[in-house]
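Assess this one:
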Amino acid sequence: MSVLISGVLTDGAGLPMSGYHIILKARQNTSAVVMRTVATVVTGPAGEYAFEAQTGRYDVYLRSCIEREYCVGDISVYDDSKPGTLNDFLTALDEGDLKPDVVKRFEEMVAQAQQSAEAAAESERQAGKHVADAQQIKSDCETLADNVQQNTNAVEENTQRVEQLASQVEDTAEEVRQDAEAAKQAASDAEQARDDIDVALSATLKTANHLSEIAAEGEAAQQESRDNLGLKNAAVRDAQAEIYDRTAGRLALPGAFGYGHLFSSSEVVYFSAQNGPAEFLKWVFEVTPGRYAVTQYGGSGIWYNPIIAYDGGNVYFRGLVDIEIRSGMHTNSTESDGRCITFHGDAEYTGQAGEGPAKYQVLVSKSMSPARLPEAWSRLFWSRDRLRQLLCAGDSTSQRAPQPGSLVLAAYLPDSGSSDVTLLRTQPVPGSRLRQVVFEAEYRGSGFSAAARSFVYGSTLPGTYLALSGGPDVTFYNRGLVSLFVRVS
């Protein structure tokens, strides 16, 4: 059997809420509906709605075309429910509104009344049985009296029998009296239990009436009652469903959006060693902005593709990630194509250079290739020790070839097909045309006695470099041009 629910959906200002989805989620199985099934009704241009609700209990949600659904309460639809508006069903009292202690007291009193009624019935049955016994004894007495009159020789014996039966009659009468008193007490107990039930129901209905009176007085009276209870406006707001729930008007939980939240191991987001960059780029566009705990599994060789390519050869990705959407990063009002990502390395990255946990930042887009991500990060701060380590970093060979970011004094040599050499400042130079340079100077107590001489030594260098000095009008033939270079890759 179904019940008509119809009306107009309005907001607090009385304006119709058109195009809203009214969603009913079944909470239990009934003869008409299966638990967890979902029914959806869309309001009309004037906020009107009308639908036949099947008997059952439902959680009610609202959702517009641009917002996520949110719960507004629950309703119960019975076979004898009267047609009404959605608000009528949402505000109707049912057994769920009774306080647990009242329900428990009510059940105890009902059980007590049932026991008293059963005791009264048993006492009444025993009393009837004893009355029947007394009547039978009386009949026996009358029979014996007739026998006395008919047989005078048995008078004495029959007289004794009569006296014995009379004594039994008195005993039976006493038992009947006691059973009658017990039945009377049981009836009194049942009456008292009924009175207690009436008092409990009256108190419950009185509480409900007080709530109805406050509601009828309007918003000012409702706000005053909330103020008296110390609830303020928090009483009329829904709390966040989780720390990343950003629905407008909801109460924030401790650690909202992840900031200040103490993450547990179950909340850490893990990325694989080999496909970490691809998994990370996909994930940042699937979650809401906020702070998250992250970790990439370790590996080596071709089985390890780091999300961040740390300078100095360290590959380590564990800590906190902040995901932001900043102004100017979106292409339209509903979807952003860019994310500003800030990574805060945890304390295990601290120590070797003494600069504190690593902190990197990158701007990513949906079109970014995972292969570009490891080198796209920018380090946000450098300590003096860390900067010195970067400028002086070299490999472990006897030549001490520089690492990316390090400086080297080298001679730029002609290539195999030409004898002239020209070098411009910031000009990219392959390491295959560079060899390191040292200077020699003859020194005496009175000072240098001759001009210094330079020597080119060792093999060519690995990687690519930028020249830090040079000019367009300087050309050398069959000679090397000495300059300071920085390795860039």
About this structure: The helical segments are 86-91, 100-150, 155-216, 219-228, 276-284, 373-376, 384-392.
